[in-house]
Amino acid sequence: MARAKKNVRKSGRRHPLATAALVAVGLLVTGAAYAGFSQTSATAEVDLTSQQTIEEGRKLFGANCATCHGTGAQGTEEGPSLIGSGAASVHFQVDTGRMPLAYQGPQGMVKPKQFTEEQTLQMAAYVASLAPGPGLPEAQYLTADDSNDIANGGVLFRINCAMCHNVAAAGGALTEGKFAPPLGGVEPSHIYEAMVTGPQNMPVFNDANLSPQDKADIISYLKYLENEPTVGGFSLGSIGPVAEGMFIWVLGLGAIVGLTVWVTAKSN
């Protein structure tokens, strides 16, 4: 009887590793929550007009950007002037990883960004303090949902953007090694900022060309394209008749050759 009680008592004991596992899980959850909160708080608390923010941005700019753009952002032989480019331009280029450039080429390439959101906004604040320029988009124009006119966005996109980015926003080739990038998976803020700043080969669409609501409609249309299934079958990259013609040619010619071989083999 005593042995049975002892076995019962032992079976109810917690495994020695259970406490360590619970502590590890708690630390992971707490760390993730804190990181998310810190990211949100840092972004929300950045005041682009604060002198402290501008000063921090000036320091970051001097350490990372002045080599190409000059100590006062006036430009050099290596990089253009940023005076008057505005906060939107800095946020687009830095937050997409295009800047700093990895190498000199036809255009900047998207890559993992090197600065936090707070640091990016600080540099944007510094450049914005030098001269008036396009500011960061308002949150109400970045919703990308059914509250915007998706049909109007489609019309505007086909009129203003499809000749470079393709009617399905799959991107396209330009001259001298340049290209219009695909727009799938791009953040709404980056799409808006690209429209108002005209990075690299892209023209500027200011509010006189496309109103903020027009831009919001275009963003909603692009997100609609991104999330809708391809109802016509295989998209083949959505790059147009070249890929479709090649597919039909290869498939059709292959079928004819196969049929010919089969008929010839049967006739023998």
UniProtKB/TrEMBL annotation:
GO molecular function, one term: iron ion binding
Highest taxon, organism lineage: Bacteria
Pfam families in the cross-refs: Cytochrom_C, Cytochrome_CBB3
Signal peptide interval: 1-35
Positions that bind heme c 1: 65, 68-69
Post-translational modification: Binds 2 heme c groups covalently per subunit.
SUPFAM superfamilies to which the protein is assigned, alphabetical: Cytochrome c (SSF46626)
The entry's keywords: Cell membrane, Electron transport, Heme, Iron, Membrane, Metal-binding, Repeat, Respiratory chain, Signal, Translocase, Transmembrane, Transmembrane helix, Transport
Keyword Translocase part of the UniProt annotation: yes
The keyword Thylakoid is annotated on this UniProt entry: no
Protein name from the UniProt record: Cytochrome bc1 complex cytochrome c subunit
Organism: Leucobacter tardus
Taxonomic placement: Bacteria, Bacillati, Actinomycetota, Actinomycetes, Micrococcales
